[in-house]
Write a structure and sequence with these properties.
alpha+beta, globular
């Protein structure tokens, strides 16, 4: 079953449950700040594993001590879907273990 695009209201409602996440350019995104480049790199590795598990991949950018995710669902005409929020929730659950803020 294909993922269905969420309405603007559904996206806004879901974002209230995910502080730090924003809707921009038809994607949901967040930047995490970490204590070091090594910590940021470790977070990227864990996010990559989650993305493979979900078979849903974001644009993932590693900076010196930052990690940025930006995601939408290509198979839903590059719209935001529940699948994107499932990924965001999984990342939110693992980010604190890396000291991300």
């Amino acid at each position: 079953m294909a993922a269905e695009p969420l309405s603007q209201k559904e996206i806004e409602d879901r974002l209230r449950e995910l502080p730090g996440w924003a809707f921009e350019d038809d994607r949901i995104s967040r930047t995490y700040r970490l204590g070091s480049h090594v910590a940021a790199s470790a977070l990227v590795a864990h996010i990559a594993a989650v993305q493979d598990e979900l078979n849903h991949h974001s644009d993932l950018t590693l900076g010196y001590n930052t990690v940025r995710l930006s995601v939408n669902t290509h198979s839903a005409d590059d719209s935001v879907t529940e699948t994107d929020f499932a990924l965001a929730e999984r990342v939110e659950a693992l980010a604190p273990a890396h000291g991300a803020s």
